[in-house]
């Protein structure tokens, strides 16, 4: 939506605080600069330490040697969608303090749970590149095609969700046309992903994440240095007064200051189900898991998942409280009116709050982090789709003996094709009236059907081929039917507006997510449960280069030690990591979804000033710890070491490489 068309009934519109030139500079020039730097780094790594992106294993999986620090940073970045920054403030404005909490709680548990899936995949089918290869090896080509379609639907709607929110914000802050932003945002992404592959994605993830979290930390402090707020206690008074002026329907006593919010917990259910779908049906998560060294998968995903929680919680709570508290004062951009429903659903709570407390500089910072968030996560989506096109379509169905060069060429084609397609699809949604809130709420209906059939593929021996094929298809049909029928039942018509309401999306998402469990169990029992031998996975040779015993890509030179003792030791180590992943998956879900929030919901507790102050301070401290983790952990865990190695290579000094039986790629002593 172009800013000039966004006005209330009195014709009052908020003028863009920045010029169009600023929008084009950030979206085009900054994008091209980052792409150029990443391409130069990729070339430098190739020349100095032999990371050859003309080799498929390096382009797609970074030779399976990415360490814990960079993995954790990449995991945080994978969830730093523009939706996370904009959506957490959106639900905070709509539901109060419960909104950002449920937004954060809807993300962390499945990130940590994916550590279990990731390490299980590395243990059972170490040569795979994508989750779809796992499906094909176990169930054959029909199941492969079914899951391929589901994964592509997931990627398409995920990208549309990001682009709709980001383009609306960039248009609102700069006056840049929303369609121009939609098509230009993927430009820089396509360039550096085209050249650098997954390693470029990891490196840009790191850079973008540091900048985004740094800006979030700045806003978390700036809000309380602004003269109209002054302190956390004063912010509490402002939010409390706002609840009296504009009571929130479904909240205890209409206040913003309670976890007892009916619509917020319904959103939390939508969000956690939808995000399980976004993780498990997104091949980019599997690619990053395969790219990590064996000892990095579980700690990387666990640390990343827990650290991520603070970003939507702290940023969403602070900035939505600023909007709610100052909306009736002359300093707020929309004064004397409240934000319109269109402005809220387009994701403008965060930029309007930033504009209020930090002026045009705050608006520019929001445009920058929105740009970085959408390009970083788009990069992962583009890699995911290019892997499907190159490995799961071209290599599987057109050229079984494809060379590195041919697969890379088709990966490049996939990068360009999907960048253009996602922009075109987002434009189509924009013109039919969909926005950030609509895609945020309905996303789970189309992303959830494959969750349990995919998880069963890796974790449950007994699921049959027919169950794997039919369960997600029936689940998708059930979810769509429930979604549309409940929209008609509650609102009398099936429209963009009615299908974007909370209740139809809750019913549709839950049906889409959980009905496949029932379908899979029934079909499996009726057709005779399978007893799949996990060893069958390892008979399939999927890697284009031979793997060492520690599951990384073999080097061309140097001795290889692949004896039975070492293989058994690796298998035992991965089993240990799987148990740790299972523990943290359960602990994170119970902590973020049961032990912490549900007693507060059931007790109908309304925050007092002291409790609100503690709530905000804990969120901000957690956010700053996240900044320290994403900034310094990758540097400590191999980043400085690799930088020094590159420097020594550049100045011509020889480095002594340790034999692989003395030092393994994950940094641990062998044996």
Automatic annotation (TrEMBL):
Matches recorded under NCBIfam families: sss
Keywords per UniProt: Membrane, Transmembrane, Transmembrane helix, Transport
Record-given protein name: Urea active transporter
Entry's Gene Ontology molecular function annotations: spermidine transmembrane transporter activity; urea transmembrane transporter activity
Subcellular location: Membrane
Protein family per UniProt: Belongs to the sodium:solute symporter (SSF) (TC 2.A.21) family.
Cellular component, GO annotation: plasma membrane
Transmembrane stretches, start-end: 21-45, 65-81, 101-121, 142-164, 170-194, 206-226, 378-398, 410-432, 438-459, 466-486, 506-528, 580-599, 611-636
Main location: membrane
InterPro entries: DUR (IPR031155), Na/Glc_symporter_sf (IPR038377), Na/solute_symporter (IPR001734)
Transport in keyword set: yes
Protein topology in the membrane: Multi-pass membrane protein
CDD domains linked: SLC5sbd_DUR3
């Amino acid at each position: 939506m172009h800013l000039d068309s966004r006005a209330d009934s009195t014709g009052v519109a908020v003028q863009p605080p920045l010029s169009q030139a600023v929008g084009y500079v950030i979206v085009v020039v900054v994008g091209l600069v980052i792409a150029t730097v990443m391409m130069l780094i990729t070339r430098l790594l190739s020349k100095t330490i032999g990371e050859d992106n003309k080799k498929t294993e390096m382009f797609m999986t970074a030779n399976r040697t990415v360490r814990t620090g960079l993995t954790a940073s990449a995991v945080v970045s994978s969830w730093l969608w523009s939706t996370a920054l904009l959506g957490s403030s959106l639900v905070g404005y709509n539901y109060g303090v419960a909104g950002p909490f449920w937004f954060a709680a809807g993300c962390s548990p499945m990130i940590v749970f994916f550590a279990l899936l990731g390490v299980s995949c590395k243990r059972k089918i170490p040569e795979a590149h994508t989750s779809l290869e796992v499906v094909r090896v176990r169930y054959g080509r029909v199941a492969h095609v079914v899951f391929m379609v589901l994964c592509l639907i997931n990627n398409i709607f995920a990208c549309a969700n990001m682009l709709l929110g980001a383009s609306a914000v960039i248009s609102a802050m700069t006056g840049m046309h929303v369609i121009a932003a939609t098509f230009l945002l993927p430009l820089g992404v396509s360039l550096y992903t085209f050249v650098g592959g997954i390693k470029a994605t990891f490196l840009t993830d790191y850079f973008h994440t540091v900048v985004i979290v740094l800006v979030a930390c700045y806003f978390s402090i700036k809000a309380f240095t602004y003269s109209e707020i002054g302190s956390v206690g004063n912010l509490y008074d402002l939010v409390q007064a706002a609840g009296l002026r504009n009571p929130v329907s479904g909240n205890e006593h209409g206040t913003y200051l309670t976890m007892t919010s009916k619509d917020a917990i319904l959103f939390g259910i939508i969000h956690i189900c939808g995000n399980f779908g976004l993780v498990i049906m997104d091949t980019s998560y599997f690619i990053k898991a395969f790219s990590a060294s064996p000892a990095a998968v579980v700690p990387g995903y666990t640390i990343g998942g827990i650290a991520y929680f603070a970003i939507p919680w702290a940023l969403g709570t602070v900035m939505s409280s600023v909007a709610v508290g100052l909306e009736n004062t002359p300093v707020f951009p929309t004064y004397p009116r409240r934000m319109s429903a269109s402005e809220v659903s387009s994701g403008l709570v965060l930029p309007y709050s930033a504009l209020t407390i930090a002026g045009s500089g705050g608006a520019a910072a929001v445009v920058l982090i929105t740009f970085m968030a959408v390009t970083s996560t788009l990069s992962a989506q583009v890699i995911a789709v290019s892997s499907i096109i190159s490995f799961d379509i071209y290599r599987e169905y057109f050229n079984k003996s494809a060379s590195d060069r041919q697969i890379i060429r088709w990966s490049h084609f996939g990068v360009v094709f999907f960048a253009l397609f996602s922009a075109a699809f987002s434009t189509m949604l924009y013109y039919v009236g969909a926005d950030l809130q609509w895609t945020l709420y309905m996303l789970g209906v189309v992303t959830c059907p494959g969750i349990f059939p995919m998880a069963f593929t890796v974790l449950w021996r007994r699921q049959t081929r027919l169950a794997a094929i039919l369960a997600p298809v029936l689940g998708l049909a059930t979810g769509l039917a429930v979604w549309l029928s409940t929209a008609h039942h509650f609102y009398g018509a099936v429209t963009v507006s009615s299908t974007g309401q909370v209740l139809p999306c809750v019913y549709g998402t839950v049906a889409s997510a959980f009905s496949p469990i029932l379908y899979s169990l029934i079909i499996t029992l009726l057709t005779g449960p399978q007893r799949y031998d996990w060893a069958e996975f390892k008979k399939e040779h999927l890697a284009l280069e031979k793997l060492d015993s520690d599951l990384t890509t073999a080097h061309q030179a140097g001795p290889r030690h692949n004896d039975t003792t070492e293989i058994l030791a690796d298998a035992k180590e991965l089993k240990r990591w799987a148990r740790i992943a299972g523990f943290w998956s359960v602990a994170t879900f119970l902590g973020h979804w049961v032990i912490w929030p549900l007693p507060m919901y059931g007790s109908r507790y309304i925050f007092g000033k002291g409790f609100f102050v503690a709530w905000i301070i804990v969120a901000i401290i957690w956010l700053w710890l996240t900044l320290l983790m994403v900034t310094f952990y990758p540097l400590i865990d191999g980043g400085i070491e690799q930088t020094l190695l590159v420097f020594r290579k550049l100045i011509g000094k020889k480095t002594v490489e340790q034999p692989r039986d003395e030092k393994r790629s994950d940094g641990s002593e062998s044996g």
